[in-house]
Sequence to fold (540 residues):
Amino acid sequence: MDMSWAHQAWPRRRALTAAAGLAAGALIPPTASPGSASAAAATFTNPVIWQDFADVDVIRVGDTYYASASTMHYSPGAPVLRSYDLVNWEIAGHSVPALDFGAKYDLNGARGYVRGIWASSLAYRPSNRTFYWLGQIDFARTYVYTATAAEGPWARHTTINTPYYDAGLLVDTDDTLYVAYGNTTISVAQLSPDGRNQVRTQQVFTTPSSVGTLEGSRFYKINGQYYIFLTRPANGQYILKSSSGPFGPYTMRQVLLDLRGPIPGGGVPHQGGLVQTQNGAWYYLAFVDAYPGGRMPALAPITWTSDGWPVVQLVDGAWGSTYPSPVVPPPPRQVTPMTGVDTFDGTTLKPRWEWNHNPDNTKWSVNNGLTLRTATVTNDLYWARNTLTHRIQGPTSTATVLLDHSAMRDGDRTGLALLRDSSAWIGLKRDGGTTRLVMVNGLTMDGNWNTTGTGTEAASAPVQGPRVWLRASADIRPGSARPGTFSYSTDGTTFTRLGPAFSMGNDWRFFMGYRFALFNHATQALGGAVRVTRFDLSTP
Fold:
């Protein structure tokens, strides 16, 4: 992912709205299967995940598929998704347990918005039965984390001084580790056998000016050929092929350009990676720009030309909204849904949750309920630590929380937000010994992610009793700004709307989509707390 798109001559926004044309592809009827004709009756619908998981890298280990995604300033970072059929996914864990890359990721004197975990790579090394995550941080250096199980625990394996931008990690058939990386100029590095150091790096390709920018490397060895799979943000996909080894020379072919995507109003499927099923069929898991919700994974079958180039299988000249389901063995169990109720049972957060920057771990706890103690004194939610976020389910969904506010103190602010660079929330303000329900909008950032508005109270209502249900409903269908609405209840059954609709913008430059967010911060002094006993993410 390229942080300088807004300054390039080629406008990225044009690509997000492009919807016509195809550079390379083949048509298949909706009932044809790349794996087995007997599976023609079973189909899946794109996007396979209607939540914000961008820059995906996808692999198969035995009968299980894993994927990694960008998370920017959210912590823990680099979620590991798991599937048994490439269609139904769950969150297994996170490769980066904490963003321990500097004080700005702790909201300590600086902020890390739109930094942190960008496009990175996930790989499995059979020789030592170990998963590897590799990614660069802040253009400064590359970090490698390892685990013997995808759900963790993950630990830092090494730090490499070369920043491998938008890296793709390849475990070669002889167990050598290679990394493809770069923007426009593509390089390949070889790592030491223990994966801790760089042995060699070499430029292998320069993108032609007629193509522009290529990045988002994914590195493969298929049938003895080396491939570097590259994206042209945000409307194209290209691939490089070498028959002479990992250091090239490489030749380039276009995979897709300005291809109509499967989400109405969304962008062109691109980036992501290739993966082969157990029976030999190939698939491409890409993402679709679909703001205000973010970037949504979409799946399509791949075939190969006789001379070894991948071809996306199309439906009516577009990336299909439906395809025949991959032919795979029956799953050993059902995956955990990404929606539904969380009562914060047990003593740890489920992997569906990520904090806005690193939390202060002394100020929160889970024990059959989530307790959020105030961790920051500020009037700016963007500076408040321990804001806990959850992805929004598209195309529309509603989050409802049950909150006990009896331990709030004067000056405290708590609630449920629709969080991005322009935000709004419903919640509680306690001042002068009185607690009120409020809806607040006008929380804004500028293009450098500095706060430009700390919020304006748009509506209020009295509250009685120690508990209240707060609700936020979000429409994240792409194509234009979409409404978010807020309501509350005193009995969990009858909800009352509070405040005007909030317009969720569809600009891409924050990269991450809108999220639901639980927060509790002080404006006067620390010491207050709230307790959340239920979170329910539901779709119509």
